[in-house]
Amino acid sequence: MSVIALLGAQWGDEGKGHIADKLAAQAFIVARYNGGDNAGHTITVGDMVVRTHLIPAGAFHSRVTCALGAGMVINLRSLAREVDELNSHGADLNPDRLKIDVAAHLLLPGHVALDGAGESQLGATAIGTTQRGIGPAYTDKAARVGLRAGSIADVETFAEAFRAHVERTNVRLTRDFARPMLDSIALEAEYANLAARFAPHLADVTALVHAALERGETVLAEGAQGALLDLDHGTYPFVTSSSTTTGGVLTSLGVGPKHVTRVIGVAKAFCSRVGAGPFPTELHDAMSERLRGTGANPWDEFGSTTRRPRRTGWLDLVALKHAARINGLSEIVVTKLDILTGIEPLHICTAYTYRGKQMAGFPGDSAWLGECVPSYTELPGWHEDIGAARRLSGLPRAARAYIEQIQSFTGVPVSHVSVGPERSQIFEV
Ligand code: IMP
After folding, report:
1. What is the mean pLDDT of residues 45-52?
2. pTM of the model
3. What element of type H or E holds 126?
4. Atom 1 of ligand 1, residue of closest alpha carbon
5. Residues in CB range of 140: below 8 A, 6 or more apart
6. pLDDT-based confidence at 409, cuts 50/70/90?
7. Who lines ligand 1 at CB under 6 A?
8. pLDDT single digits (tens) 89-103
9. Alpha helix locations (H) across 96-223?
10. CA separation for the pair 4, 23 (Å, rounded)
11. How many CA atoms lie within 13 Å of 10's alpha carbon, on the beta-carbon side?
């Protein structure tokens, strides 16, 4: 039938997990299309909290095929750990249910080592990456020296290419970073096992997607990170190294725009960012802490991959409108509205001023964005507990006005709102 694109509309960590899980129930294939295990989705199923980094939503829906698309960089070591954990909770991710595109790239130990070494060398100017090797893996892909997932099908070719990867890395680690070399013998044995384990999962995901579409099935394309971390349209260089936007769905899964019928952007009711880079509405006071939470709950604003405290601030509608444009959003899902309960008044950024002049929109250049001063619209807050609301009319008037402000500023309808961490606390508007 069609592809539904589901992606982050801010700087990642928008709470995509629950809506992804809800939509996955109606899909035949759920495919991750970008990034690697830098992503972290927290899903709660009953009283169980599960974190996924590579596997898309749908792991617990037995009729869903989970696919890792060509645009991804896949760390087989992390994948093994994650599959084991999800299977221990009853997911059954066997080779018929978990597919790895032959054209996806492998994220190997050298990439992780070089990410860490590169970030340390940058010191104060570091990007603040997740140190999962994402940048170096995409660098190798673009330089055409990377290893594709398909290489694990042939034991000897893979062993040779893996050895060359370790040798190349060791030259760089010692020459450029004065770091110890990787232990090639131990790694070769470990990766030979991982390759043998995952070879049965190799597939042509693009062909599977097209076959599903021809049969009238729905394919959910699940994004990682967020629009403002996109390599081209985000706050470069403080971005990730993949295409996080709708464009990434098309190139990774090999589908044309005519197949994408819904583009759903997930946005938190406030903003957060982890790592360095401009963040116009960032707060540095008690309100920042209030929005972040203490870390006692899994949904507090601490990185789900790195546990770093996230930077927090007011909702930025200028940035959200930019995300709506570059993705062609057809709808917005607003998450964590309940976190704003009790805050009076609420602030929403509706304009930027750059060197005394009001900007027409979101600047493409990070240096300009870093100098932008946000202007806020003040809105009244609400004090009632909204966790039990299951429809828009069940929300206090001020909460409805907040949602209305998002719709009218961005020109994109809000389709769902979440009012708590439980799977049941997300409702259709
Ligand atoms: P990398 O993707 O690890 O190279 O990190 C590049 C930037 O993207 C850093 O600012 C990270 O904090 C950020 N980033 C990467 N993955 C995520 C994510 O899943 N959520 C939020 N930020 C992320």
Report:
1. 76
2. 0.96
3. none
4. 129
5. 105, 111, 146, 147
6. very high
7. 11-13, 38-40, 127-130, 132, 134-135, 224-225, 229, 238, 240-241, 274-275
8. 889 999 999 999 999
9. 109-122, 134-142, 155-177, 184-198, 205-214
10. 9
11. 28
Q: Which of 13, 101, 115, 140 is catalytic?
A: 13
Q: How far apart are CA 106 and CA 311, in angstroms?
A: 31
For the chain, how many residues are written?
Answer: 429
Average pLDDT, the chain: 95
From 41, 53, 259, 416, the catalytic residue: 41
CA of 239 to the centre of ligand 1 (A): 7
Structure tokens at 220: 């959910």
The two structure tokens encoding residue 38 = 């830098």
The pick from 16, 129, 302 for probing ligand 1's pocket by mutation, whose C-beta has the most ligand atoms within 8 angstroms, reads 129
* For residues 147-162, average pLDDT: 97
3-state helix, strand, coil split of the chain in percent (to 5) is 40, 25, 40
pLDDT band at 184 (very low <50, low <70, confident <90, very high): very high
Give the number of other Cβ atoms within 10 Å of residue 142's Cβ.
9
Say which residue the tokens 């590169």 belong to: 118
Enter the tokens of residue 81.
């750990």
